Amino acid sequence: MNRIRISDEINDAYVGPHGQMSLFNRHPREVCNDIGLNWITALSLYDKGWLSFDPKSKTDVDDHEATELYFIGSLAAWGFDDSQIELLLKGLQKPYAYKIDKIYYDWLTKKWRLLPNLSDMDDVQSFIEALLQEGAVNLLQSMHEQISEALGINPMNCREKIIADIAASECNIISKKIIRHFRAMKEGMQSGDDTPLENIWDEICVQARGNESVMWNVYQDNVRVAIRGEVENLNATIKRPICLQTEAGIDWAMDSDVDHEEVIFCEEDITEYILQKFVLPAAANWYNKR
Question: CA triplet 50, 65, 38: central angle to 5 degrees?
Fold first, then answer.
């Protein structure tokens, strides 16, 4: 599966000036109605210097102007105050004619980013992994409300599914790193000189299938150390979703107010979870192409 990198450039979402008039001319008030923006607030956007044209002086808007009003107007309609809007517009070029459905704001880096093109990805899992690599966890968490509303799904169930998907995606990434690490290890093998096994990972696979040696606990401890190293490098926003999948995390969630209490993660629990639920099952099902 090819990993998709989300571009830092948002030029593809920009509509240049001198746009063509739409086939069906639209009054600025119609655009405001589309995004739930009251007319007085729309006029104030021009007075504050955010909008390049005065809506009340227009009877029709071209694509460039409509896109600009959609973008700036949406920020106001979503409830951001003036200081927050100033922050969101920082670094963007005027006029702010960006297609609001093509970009998102990454709160971690404080930058607007271009949304990945779903047609360029194998499946939804790639989309999740791409967003994770860019640290866009806030976007993933906010998506659950729109998805649940559209599908009529209980928001909490949808949220739990998204959290579980985030955790599974990152655990799979770590598992693959661990496999590559031990496949590259050829020294220190305990299976003898005449073994058909090629590396430490092969030895782990054989034992994961039930053919345990007296050294099996040592093998598992070595894998735990490798996993722990990867876990320690994770951002806290990734550790928390994984922790919620562990037995301790599930117990904590049942006894706590997940919406208002910060998830306290335990790296040891996360390490054991990845070992038991991802790495060892992968070893048990592993086969080499000869």
Answer: 65
Q: How far apart are CA 164 and CA 180, in angstroms?
A: 24
Place of tokens 């005449």: 194
Bridge partners of residue 105, in order along the sequence: 112
Q: Are 185 and 198 in contact (CB under 8 A)?
A: no
Measured between alpha carbons, how far is residue 149 from residues 143, 172, 213, 217, 279 in Å?
10, 29, 53, 48, 36
pLDDT digits (tens, 9 = 90+) for 228-262: 999 999 988 888 889 888 888 887 777 665 454 56
The domain locations on the chain are 11-127, 163-284
Neighbours of 82 (CB within 10 A): 11
In the chain, what are the helix, strand and coil shares in percent, each to the nearest 5? 55, 5, 40
Q: In 188-261, at which residue ranges do the beta strands (DSSP E only) sit?
A: none
List, for residues 94-133, the tens digit of each pLDDT value: 899 999 888 888 776 778 888 766 555 455 666 667 666 6
Q: Are the beta carbons of 269 and 251 closer than 8 angstroms?
A: no
Q: Please give the Cα distance from 12 to 127 (Å, whole number).
A: 19
Yes or no: say if 69 and 89 are a contact pair by the CB < 8 Å rule. Answer: no
In whole angstroms, what separates CA 36 from the centre of its chain?
Answer: 28
